[in-house]
Amino acid sequence: MSVDETVGVPQPGRSSKRNERESTETTTSDTKDSVVATGREDTDRDDTGRAGVEPILDDLAAAAEMEADPESRRDLTMVRRIAIGAWIVLMAVHVALYGLAFDRTRLIILMCLGLAAACIGRRKFITILIDWAPFALILILYDWTRDVARIVDMPTHWHLAIDFDAWLTGGVNPTAWLQEHLKQASPPWWEVIVSIVYMSYFIIPYAVAAVLWLKDRAAWRRYAACFVATTFLALVGYTLVPGAPPWAAARCTAAEVQDFPRDPICMYSPEAKEPGGLLGTLDNEYPDANPYVERISARGWGYLNIHAASNLVEVGQGKSNLVAAIPSLHAGLTMLLALFMWPRVKALGKTLFMGYALAMAFALVYTAEHYIFDIVLGWLLAAAVIATYQIIDRKILLPRQRRRAAEEAAADSGDDRRPDDARASTTAS
Fold it and tell me: What is the chain's mean pLDDT, rounded?
């Protein structure tokens, strides 16, 4: 057995082997210190635990990991807690002054500030820029291009989803039926839950992304890729098939939308010239409720007298693409979240994530934000993205990872099998 094997120094066959033999104790000590300093435990491995082929950006992020020893990390714990507390205060002040961040630019900036606070003593701040900058830029690009349908002047579909829902339910419009049986003149207590579920779309998918990034960057990369793919495929739908939501159809008559307009004046009226518009009048179980379909996704906050929250939602809705309905991205991303987390959580987690997707679907239909047609397409889109990711992962990425791991193992074992005199001869030459 050689001296190098005795002290446990790896033998990868590099040019520094002569120096390793001359200072084995120093090398061993440095190796141990580097392991402690990096504090990494295969954070960049795939879900199978095997080291894989990492993209360039991930290699950079791996190199930028926090290089503090355990003692230093403990010293920064209090600093991290103070920073997180300051971020919470900042968020509260921001919401109070400017409202909820519906636009992605503000949302991602605020989230990255929170991640920067949570990373103190754990990772270097540059990892946030390396990992999140491409993700943020892509989503901001999405916001810039979501009005492509307006630019190319695509006709807006007013009857497509209505006809599908009627076919699916035997002639009954689900939104009209739900509001007919459940809507009251004033919001009941349970509409608070409906409004919270609807608003959570602007928070929960991004919060899950942040948690995944802190705990499992390999899973985060997969989630981010699926998130971006779903978002941009939905954009294709908005561009090719602009669709009016139920609340808009309830404000417009057939004559007003016969030319497939994008944003007719009737959309901005509180009710249609003909009661109920395209969706007809309601035979309400609660007589005091308005006899037509209404947009009530923010109404639940009125039960708690938090009118600022409802105003925030309504302002955000006014700035959005009003005919971006086919498919429903609210339904698509919440189902994507449920399907992605399904193999990663236990039974309770599965129930919560899938229940969240179903609760979002109910909220969207009841509040007149989407038809069942939109929701089904959103779910199918999410399922297609997840299935594609799994196929790519199983057929391409994992085999490459195994192949590279096998090549590295073969190279290392090949060096170790060489006799000591051969190694010495190689070194001398």
Answer: 76
**Among 216-220, 274-278, 415-419, the least confident range:** 415-419
Q: How confident is the model over 200-217, as a mean pLDDT? A: 86
CA 176, CA 284: separation in Å to the nearest integer? 10
Q: What ranges do the domains of the chain cover?
A: 154-402
CB contact burial 172-195 (16+ within 10 A = b; e otherwise): ebbbbebbbebbeeebeeebbebb
pTM beyond 0.85: the answer is no
Closest of 201, 176, 154 to residue 359, by C-alpha: 201
Q: For residue 356, what are the CA distances in angstroms to 235, 332, 339, 352, 400? A: 23, 12, 12, 6, 36
What is the DSSP code (8-state) at residue 396?
A: I
| Distance between CA atoms of residues 382 and 214, nearest Å | 24
Q: Going by C-beta distance under 8 Å and a sequence separation of 6 or more, which residues neighbour residue 156?
A: 242, 243, 244, 257, 260, 261, 262, 323
The pLDDT tens digits of the residues spanning 368-392 come to 999 999 999 999 999 999 999 999 8
Find, among 5, 10, 51, the residue nearest to 218 by Cα: 51
